[in-house]
Each structure stands twice: as structure tokens, then as C-alpha cells.
Amino acid sequence: MDGHFALKKIEELQPQVVTLDLEMPGLNGIDTLKEITRRWRLPVIVVSSHSTAGASITLKALSLGAFDFVAKPEDVSAKMPEIAAELIKKIGAAAQSTGVHPQFLPHDTPAPLGAKLQPLAPTRIIAIGVSTGGPNALQYLFSNLPSDFPGSILVVQHMPDGFTELFAKRLDDCCQIRVKEAQSGDLLVAGRALIAPGNRHMKIKKLPLGNVAMLSEEGPVNGHRPSADVLFHSVAQEFGSQATGVLMTGMGEDGAAGLGEIRSAGGFTVAQSAETCVVYGMPKAAIERGYAMRVAHLQDMPGILQAQCAVDRGRGETVEVKRAANTGSN
Description:
It contains 10 helices and 14 strands. It is of the alpha/beta class and 330 residues long. Helix 8 links the parallel strand 10 (243-247) and strand 11. Helix 1 packs parallel to helix 2 and helix 7 (228-239) runs parallel beside helix 8. The longest helix is centred in the first third of the chain and has 17 residues, at 80-96. The termini are far apart.
């Protein structure tokens, strides 16, 4: 009925998993979530409206320690089987998870003004695949990279359409590197991360005037669009030994095969450790197949990526970033 009732029931029933509507009378969803994570550190799956306001409050919930979320469209009845299947899968994963990792919950600390540098040609291309637990893991990783980070980062985070743009802006506001939702034609530049938009695959292509990201609406791969395997395959083909593939916390096996392709092409591959994953599915699948050259704790990943990109930064040439009149900078 409301948050106060929920807290009493949690104390009485001691559940393994909680599903939480963010829109409730009395004690609202966000305040209820704060109490749950403070008192019990239970995995909480947020049920959120599929709207701009809903996306914003959902990202807030994830930053406070929510395990994952399920987006609720306006016409719930028409998509009830899909929502139910997604919720069941996430409840199962939450029940097997280790709960909240307080040490990796982000702080809303804005990046220093003027800290973001002019774009240079990157020394290395870094492709990241991540799912459940990804928003906090990425914020931790990106907030520990300097503004002059010499690599170009491409991210597939399993997240619905309408959420990724706000997520990218949130990261950009609190990290020294630049972060944006990818658009077709975005240049791959040092010190910037491109987040694949929800419901579109992201690939990369080498062109005479610069290397760019390309978006596609091809069918889902491994049940996902965007898919980490699609990105990793493209990175392996185009950049080979200049590429680094990273698989982080998430359900399922998306990205495992693609990480193997990056390794076979001469690139470097990393998988996040079980101890620091919210869900160990994606990294575990790659590790068990022998595709991860290194298994690393989340807190060690910033240093690993910087070491991979460590070359003479003076070689980088300034890249012209053209501004489209109606879409903002690429």
C-alpha cells in the first residue's frame, strides 16, 4: 500500500528479494529504497514508468543501490507477458546475487568545471559490455579516469530506449571524461565514452576522415539490442590488436563470444571478478571459455585501462569535432 507498510512486511517476512514501485502514497519509493538498503541491503528490483520522469527517478534508484529495474509501459496489459518474463528472470538473478555493494555505490560529485579537454585521436579503442549492476559499476569506473584519458570508450549497457540518454548525461555530469549517448557518425576520440542507445546496436567503422560509431536496427542478438557481441565483433574486425574488450557485471552470456573474437584478433581482454559483480553471468561465461586474459576487481579496472592506453600522448593529433546544427556535438 505504501512504503511504511512495505518496511513492516520486510521485517516480518525477511524476503530474499523486494520488488518496489517508485510511485506510492506516504513514504515514496526512493525513501523506502534508502531504508531497505540501509537496514537490510536486500536486492531491490524497481518497477518504473517508461517516461522521461520515470527514467530519471529510476537512475536515482539505481545510484542508491537498487539491483535492477523493469520499465512499465503506459499500456501494461498489452505487454504483460513480456514484463512478467523479464521480472521473473530478474527476480531469479537477484535471489542468487550478493545484494548491495556499498563500497561501489556512486556519489553525486560533479566533475570539476573546465576539466574536460579538447578531443585527440585515441591511442586505443576500449569496448565495454555490461548489464545488471552496470550503472553503478560504470560510474565508479569512469569517475576514476582522468580527463586526459587517452583511450576511446564504447559501451553497451543493456537498458531500454529512453533511459540511455539520461544515463549518459548523468555520467557526463559527474565524471572528468566526456560521456554521451552515441549517434551514427560520432567520431571515436580520446577521453570520451559513447553509450549505445537503447534498442539500437552499435558498431564502429574506419573511414578516411576518422573512425566513427555506427548505429543499426538489425534484430536482437542473444536477446538484446544493443548487444555487446555485436560491438565486440565490430571492434575485433576493425581494430584487432589496438582493441581492449571488457566484460562487466550482468546476467546471461552476451559479449562472451565477442570477447573471444577480440582476443583472437590480438586485442586485450578483461572480465570483472565475481567478488565485485552484482551478477556474475556475463564475465563468468567468458572466463569459463578461456576468453578473458585477465580477471580483475572493479577497483583495479581504471588502472588497467590506463596502463593499456599508456603511450606517448604527444603523438595524438587534435580531431575536429563537427557540430550539427540541430543535434549537438558529435
